[in-house]
Amino acid sequence: TASLDAKKTAYGQEEKLTSYEDVTSYNNYYEFGTGKEDPAREAVLFKPAPWTIKIEGAIKQPKTISIEQLLKLVPLEERIYRMRCVEGWSMVIPWIGLPLKALIDWAQPTGNAKYIEFVSYNDPRQMPGARMSVLDWPYVEGLRMDEAMQPLAILAVGLYGKVLPNQNGAPVRLVVPWKYGFKGAKAISTIRFVEKMPTTTWVKAGPREYGFYANVNPQVDHPRWTQSSEKRIGAGLFAGRIKTRMFNGYDEVGQLYAGMDLKKNF
Amino acid sequence: MTRSTSILFDSPVAKIRALKALIWLGACLPLLRLLILGFTDNLGANPVEFIERSTGTWALVFLLFSLSITPLRHWTQQSWLIAVRRLLGLWMFAYACVHVLTYLWLDYSFDWADILKDVIKHPYVLVGASAFLLTVPLAATSNQRAIRVLKQRWKTLHQLVYVIGVLALLHYWWLVKKDVTEPVIYSVVFAGLIAARWRQGLNHRR
């Protein structure tokens, strides 16, 4: 994999990184199969280049942006983020990317843009998991506009100083560290500014289990998994669990949800 | 040929011994594999989940093996097969024990408050825990003395294995997020074994 330069930031300097091996071999990416090991094996032939993202909806003019243009939009940054999966495990990943806000500013949405919808690439010929109807393809995720503008939300194009591996969502994916991992749409092909809250893939699959907001919240349990604690990947057989923190420890996002009932809006 | 002479000629004792040795060997392999993978750091990114999945699956497999003995006996007319049923059932119990121990120790570090919360709050854990608790009396009474003492009640007690099977399958169905292929396969096998017993039961009565 080609290396990728980025300026260091203060984010997550205190954290112990999850190994490159684990980050790139234990993935939830159903377009390449439902097993955690499937994506690393099945995404080998996936072609992340050439790549353009369509940007449409409530903007002055529909646009496309190539991955090369995106990389030059603003200087790339390294952000070390915790990633908490809804299944009760977590990793610490040194992402390389750019603030989502930079792309939004470039796209110039209109006042009607209340939400932003991310559509993942879907090609059953290249993606064996996409031939099965386990989820309603293509994969759709979304954020409220103010969430999308939050400086923590990034579009990741690399990790560990390298170009993003296919199994991690190459060439470009969303990373929203205070939300459960499934919010991070991979291989983004369309970004749409919309007025109404998008119906996201996992909400469609199980509205009782998955919500639009999906903020990491140790007080609101998933019907199947405990959310009060988590297993850190790579910590070893006998490491036990660590306590899950509200908003995955990113307290600065709290103001986005002031006055909201987070039990209802899970 | 009468039954007694056939037993004499085929030497069921030798057959039982050979099959039991085979079962011991086969049943130890998955455990051995986990140990080797564990010591060589090859259990993947989430080793605890790996062990939980593997031991849970093997417990289910041995449950299905033990349920297959009775129909198999009827089809093949090899009545000596009954002699290995207990061994298969006990291996199910052994894998269930490692499965539960992995959960209690490696997953939750014996944090009883968290464990209790997890069991009560999550239906899939609750049915799994119930299935395990029900296997305990079966394992405890899997000896000749218990059979003698309990008489007809022993049979009734050991019919709990069907309940355990249903609970274990439910546990599996509810824990997978979306792709139910594997639980479907195990459920079909389970249903097939139950159907076979039911049919053979009917034939008997006729």
TrEMBL record, chain B:
Binds 1 FMN per subunit. InterPro entries: Fe3_Rdtase_TM_dom, MsrQ-like. The chain crosses the membrane at residues 21-40, 55-75, 87-106, 126-144, 156-174, 180-198. It is found in: Cell membrane; Membrane. Pfam families: Ferric_reduct (PF01794). It is a multi-pass membrane protein. Residues 55-168 form the Ferric oxidoreductase domain. Its cofactor is FMN; heme b. Keywords: Cell membrane, Electron transport, Flavoprotein, FMN, Heme, Iron, Membrane, Metal-binding, Transmembrane, Transmembrane helix, Transport. Its main location: membrane. Part of the MsrPQ system that repairs oxidized periplasmic proteins containing methionine sulfoxide residues (Met-O), using respiratory chain electrons. Thus protects these proteins from oxidative-stress damage caused by reactive species of oxygen and chlorine generated by the host defense mechanisms. MsrPQ is essential for the maintenance of envelope integrity under bleach stress, rescuing a wide series of structurally unrelated periplasmic proteins from methionine oxidation. Heterodimer of a catalytic subunit (MsrP) and a heme-binding subunit (MsrQ). Belongs to the MsrQ family. This is Protein-methionine-sulfoxide reductase heme-binding subunit MsrQ. It comes from Methylophilus flavus. The gene is msrQ.
